[in-house]
Structure formats: C-alpha cells, structure tokens
Amino acid sequence: MHANSQGYSFGVVAILAGLATATLIYLHPEQLRVPNWVAYSACVAFVFAGWTLLAQTSSARRYYRWMVVALIGTMLVPPLWAAFGASSQTCSAAIVGIVFFPSDVACRVVWGVSAAILFVFLFWTVRWAMGKPHAD
Length: 136
Known about the structure:
The protein is 70% helix and 4% strand. It is mainly alpha-helical. It has one domain (3-130). The protein is globular and about 50 Å long.
C-alpha cells in the first residue's frame, strides 16, 4: 500500500472511529463516568486526527499544520478536566502488573502534568503553524 493511500485509509478510519464513538455516547450516556462534553472532546480528537492525516495526504496540505493545532487542543480537554474540573476521583495505576489506587491529589497531579506537557506541544505547534509555509 502506498504511503499516501495508507494515510488516507487511516484518516478515514480515525474519523469513523470518532463518529461511531460519539454515536455510542449519544445513545448510551448512562455508561459515562465523565461529563458528555469531555467524552465528546475525545471523539472530536479522533476526527481531527483523521482530518490531519487526510490533509497531509491531499491537496489540503496547507491546512495540515492548523489541523495538528486543533488535534492537540482537543487532546487537552480530558486531562484538564481530570486535573481541575472533576469532583473527587478514584484512579488506578499499575507498575509491573501490581495495581494500586493513588490518592485523589496524586491523580490530579498526574493529569495536570499531562496537561502541562500538552500545553507545551500546543505552544510549539501554534508557532510552527504560524511559520512560513513550506514543504514539511
């Protein structure tokens, strides 16, 4: 399979996965342990990932950089909510197969660090997207 057709195929699959998951959330919101908008933002991230792959492999390449920005922006929503917006939470972690349950504060710190890393990526990608357009 050629690289462009492979990127196109993966892009379509990512978009369909995001839309299918959003449909399941709509049909069965009672299964969620997060607010709908947080779950939908994760679905939108899949759609943006697919669009990003499509833009990279098509004549819409000039939009590619901004699609990466949009993707990272949507990826920020769940960790920001988990770190700062969620009520008291229980999370689990595993190291070498040993499962443990850290405190609410430890969970929030991990999610906050994840969000901080994504903010750095977002900053870099906005600068990159604003830069001089050229072949990437």
